[in-house]
Amino acid sequence: MGTTQLESVPEPKYWHLKTVLSEALDSEFSVGEILPNERDLAARFGVARATLRQALEQLELEGRLQRRRGVGTTVAPPRMGVAVGTDQDAWPGAPGDAWQPADCTLAVPPAAVAAALETGAEEPVHIVRRSRVSHGQPVAAELLYVPAASVPELTAIDAPSGAPRVRAVLRELHRLELEGQDRAVELGSARADDAKELDRLPGAPVLVVTTRFLAAGRTAALSVATYRADTCRLTFGDTGGVEIHHGPERQAS
Amino acid sequence: MGTTQLESVPEPKYWHLKTVLSEALDSEFSVGEILPNERDLAARFGVARATLRQALEQLELEGRLQRRRGVGTTVAPPRMGVAVGTDQDAWPGAPGDAWQPADCTLAVPPAAVAAALETGAEEPVHIVRRSRVSHGQPVAAELLYVPAASVPELTAIDAPSGAPRVRAVLRELHRLELEGQDRAVELGSARADDAKELDRLPGAPVLVVTTRFLAAGRTAALSVATYRADTCRLTFGDTGGVEIHHGPERQAS
DNA sequence: GAGTGGTCTAGACCACCGC
DNA sequence: CGGTGGTCTAGACCACTCT
Predict the structure, then answer these.
(1) Which of A51, A75, A99 is the last residue of a domain?
(2) CB A97 within 8 A of CB A89
(3) Phi/psi-derived region of residue A174, left when phi > 0, alpha when psi is between -120 and 50, beta in every other case
(4) Å between A17 CA and D16 C1'?
(5) Mean pLDDT lowest among A30-44, A189-203, B15-29, B230-244
(6) In a shared domain, residues A155 and A214
(7) Residue B5: inside a domain, yes or no?
(8) Fewer CB within 10 Å of terminal CB in chain B, N or C?
(9) 3-state DSSP assignment of residue B234
(10) Within this chain, do residues A180 and A194 fall inside the same structural domain, yes or no?
(11) Which domain holds residue B164?
């Protein structure tokens, strides 16, 4: 990665810098390799550290880099494909899904969620927390809102707490027959609790997948799942999802 | 989910600022209203402009604000739902889809695209440009790669150029019977040309939807569509997509 | 303790928009 | 032209991780 001239600016410095770095990543670095630190890089390119950081932020957003405080900046592997809306991620509680139960509480949901569930604004619902791991890394955190009406057999004292209680709720929920589902994907930023679970800093970019499960003519449950946008490529549909990446990426020894 | 709590660890200023601003947007501003300029806002909150901007950037990423150089910062309307993978966005060229033809060239695609298409690395393909408009705003720009093998009847001199040529390619393509499709969604940043088409600055966050169309046992076409991440919520599935937003948003007169 | 990325400051100039 | 957001600088200190 030789020192390069950035001259006579038709385009912003950080943009040009990003291009130069991107090409250097393809040709001179291996996956997992550690880059020089930000102060050195900035000096090498003759820019202020803030400008260099702007370029690094973009590359991290695109999944090319991974930065960790106290450690350094490393070359990220290609994004992993994560299946959404297939066997691994269908009617919650189905056997063989990719989600791990965390805990479950009974509380009043945010107003917008209550509206989507068609429950009363002050009516408490079961709030299930689950997490999803893929290739040994946490990729998503989920809040699953289940109205009491969807699990009528469940009494408050039925299950203790934590994972067993999650399983009890899902077991009851799964007695309903799934009739259909709506799904939406949008960009968001990680709340503090999700960030912690995803091993990222608060505000990190996430893909928010909102799914409404329909059964018995009603909204039986609502899932709000936040996926790490830097490491995940969400795949839909029949067979597995397309993989498009940039250039020759090598593996670190 | 109220988090008004004493902190054992200090919260970054920009994060706190974002929360304050977010609440102010819900309670004191209407959609379309113009915020005070960045210098005034920074002074009002007693922070440097760069810090204030960090908070605004997050809010823009979440679709709460819209900023335009030379104009100002305005309160954004709720994200619009954009259907993906339904009648409006299925087999390209199907009647009644939501895409408008732009132009078409014959060129060698990027190596990664050639690999997905299973064509030779140096083999030129038809590259169709289309754009998608919703609610009067441009929401997506697409590059559709069509191998020559998928449109065998098309000769080079068949159609002149521009939109008519796009239609000719799609008409030929549509003679194949669609057998299935793979789809993937990931976060990206807008390239210079896409940014221009989407009326954003280069590097703006986008949702990249990659779709592989399967017909005759092959990959008949590959679509790479970049959607504005700030204004769009991609909806999938049966009926229309869930709408979850933050709080009481009012309409500007 | 040394070294990393994360936050923050107080300035400056530039590119764009509307009047 | 004046006002807006966008870029850039050269510092400083903090939070974290590793050794």
Answers:
(1) A75
(2) yes
(3) alpha
(4) 27
(5) B230-244
(6) yes
(7) no
(8) C
(9) strand
(10) yes
(11) 80-241
Q: How many CB pairs under 8 A join A and B?
A: 153
Beta strand B30-31 pairing with A30-31: unpaired
User: Over pLDDT 70: what percentage of chain A?
Assistant: 86
pLDDT per residue as tens digits for the range B117-164: 988 888 999 999 999 999 888 999 999 999 998 888 766 565 567 778
Q: Are residues B162 and B219 in the same domain?
A: yes
* Polymer length of chain B: 253
Strand D nucleotides, any atom under 7 Å to a protein CB: 2-12, 14-18
Partner-chain residue, chosen from A184, A203, A238, that has the shortest CB–CB distance to B241: A184
What confidence score (pLDDT) does residue A250 get?
56
pLDDT for B5: 39
CB-based contact B112:B143 (threshold 8 Å):
no
Interfacial B residues in 193-212 facing A (CB < 8 Å): 202-203, 205, 207, 210-212
Chain A residues 11-30 with a CB less than 8 Å from chain B: 11, 15, 18
Give the model's confidence band at A72: pLDDT under 50 very low, under 70 low, under 90 confident, else very high. very high
Residues of B in contact with A234 (CB under 8 A): 184-186
Looking at the structure, do residues B102 and B40 belong to the same domain, yes or no? Answer: no
Whole-number Å distance between alpha carbons of B181 and B30 = 41
Whole-angstrom Cα Rg for chain B: 22
Query: Measured from the CB, is A133 under 7 Å from any atom of strand D?
Result: no
Given a cut of 70, whether residue A132 has pLDDT beyond it is yes
- Whether residues A71 and A144 share a domain: the answer is no
Q: Which nucleotides of C are covered by protein (CB under 7 A)?
A: 2-12, 15-18
Q: Are residues A87 and A208 in the same domain?
A: yes
Query: How high is the pLDDT of residue A191?
Result: 93
Regarding whether A150 and A109 lie in a shared domain, the answer is: yes
Identify the segments of chain B with pLDDT beneath 70. Answer: 1-9, 154-160, 238-243, 245-253
B15, A203: Cβ pair inside 8 Å?
yes
Nearest to A41 by CA among A29, A27, A53, A33: A53
Q: A65 with A88, same domain? A: no
Q: Residues of chain B with pLDDT > 90: what percent? A: 59
> How many domains does chain B contain in total?
2
User: Is the Cβ atom of A8 within 7 Å of strand D at any atom?
Assistant: no
Residue A89 clears pLDDT 80, i.e. is over it: no
For residue B2, report the phi and psi dihedrals to the nearest 5 degrees.
Answer: -70, 125
List, in order, residues 6 or more apart from A122 with CB less than 8 Å away: A108
User: Mean pLDDT, to the nearest integer, of A36-50?
Assistant: 97
Tokens coding A92 = 């919650």
